[in-house]
Amino acid sequence: MTVWVAIAALAVINFMIKAAGPALLGDRPLPPLVSLVVHSLAPALLAGLLIVQVLGQGWREFDWTLLAGLSVIGVLWLLGRSQILCILAGVVVTVIIRALV
Amino acid sequence: MSRSGSAPEYGWRPGLRVGVGLGLAVFPVAVSFGALSTTLGWPPLATIICSAVVFSAGGQLALLTTLTGGSGLLLALGAATLINLRFLPMGVSVAASLEGPAWKRALGAQTILDGSWAAAYQGGGRYDRLTMFGASAVQWPVWILGTVVGVVAAPAPELVESLGLDVVFPGFFLVLLLDSFRSTPRAPLIAGTAILLTGGLVLVAPTGVAVMLSSLAAFVVLIGRDRRDPGGPHVQESQ
User: Fold this and answer.
1) pTM of the model
2) pLDDT tens digits, residue range B194-230?
3) Where are the domains of chain B?
4) How many angstroms away from the CA of A38 is the closest CA of chain B?
5) B161 to chain A: nearest residue by CA?
6) Which of B156, B179, B211, B239 has its CA 20 to 30 A from that of B36?
7) In Å, how far are A48, A50, B44, B79 from B74, measured between CA atoms?
8) Looking at the complex, does the CB of residue A35 fall below 8 Å from at least one CB of chain B?
């Protein structure tokens, strides 16, 4: 029974967390300073998501082969390659390195 | 969605295409959740329903492991909520890009997932809601299907690593982060601050909390800015 209550409660909480910003803010124009910060959320959160994926909780998931794959992705991005190609190359390089070491 | 090499594409179709790539990455995670959940004694139906109504890998895993680890209901919900709090600043960031009355915006915001939200970013603080909808529309059934597969037949967790699927999400976040350098003022400074902040936080806090607090790095954009002209030309700047 606890499992079902927990799942239902988490579903409701999750809904409210996601809905809060759009439902309360709407499309009201934000003050310029707030707008500037909101516009800057994307690089901040993307960097946060990237680091969490690379390091994991307590840095326990750090894997240098993943870093090698990400480096390839970064270099190909600098060379102007498409997003899909960058990621695909990163995956292939990581798989090859893991197979070799 | 090839923003670095060609013109940006947004809308339902590009969103669906991104969703296929992200779906390939989330599928093994969903399988892992289904398998672990069954091993830890959750009823199969509850596991599948959980994936359908919560649809959040971090939150679901936190709930499962804390609840089956002996924690009470409130502690388990607290842990899962902390993981999912990162969706709060994401919701704020897409608020102006969603349309219609409050209830419709609230429903649209349910498609906010890490990958979908990132794919919808157009630069200059704008997001394409259709891209986000499309990317999430693919991932949701894939997430449920993966959970079912995990419940029925648990594959070895090493499979994800050997196929290199763990590169897809960080790789995706990396190219979008690099793209944002072209469209957001002071993005490298913001990203550098977020990297240092998050790198330290994951040592002492759950990953969901670390991601949520990484949003604080956005405030560095205010450093040295004239209060009388806070936005200047930068607020309107776009890709």
Assistant:
1) 0.72
2) 999 999 999 998 877 888 888 899 999 888 776 555 4
3) 12-234
4) 6
5) A95
6) B211
7) 27, 30, 23, 9
8) yes
